[in-house]
Amino acid sequence: MQQKIISTIMFLTIFLSFTGCATKEKTNSLSKMYPNMQIRTYEVFGMDCPGCHGGIEKLVKEVPNVVDAKANWDEKKITIVIKKEATIEDKTIFEAIKRANFTPGKRIQ
Asked: How much is the pTM?
């Protein structure tokens, strides 16, 4: 029984580490995927697991002129791609983050 618990804990640790790295990789590649777009990064507090990022990404993508969004729970941030010619106030992004039940921090980039 104890061996099974240890194996489960090890599996979960590896899985969560891998998921965090995959999310980090996706976030870093946004500027390469969208070279002619605005890229913004914001702090987000309250994300504490890999599953948290889906809801926040969905709600931020609903903001007009947002092309893509990738959250990183491990780094507590979300990176957003916005149409180059668009003007979106930070307040609008903060409201979308709040609708996802997270706390927005400052704009990092």
From this structure: 0.72
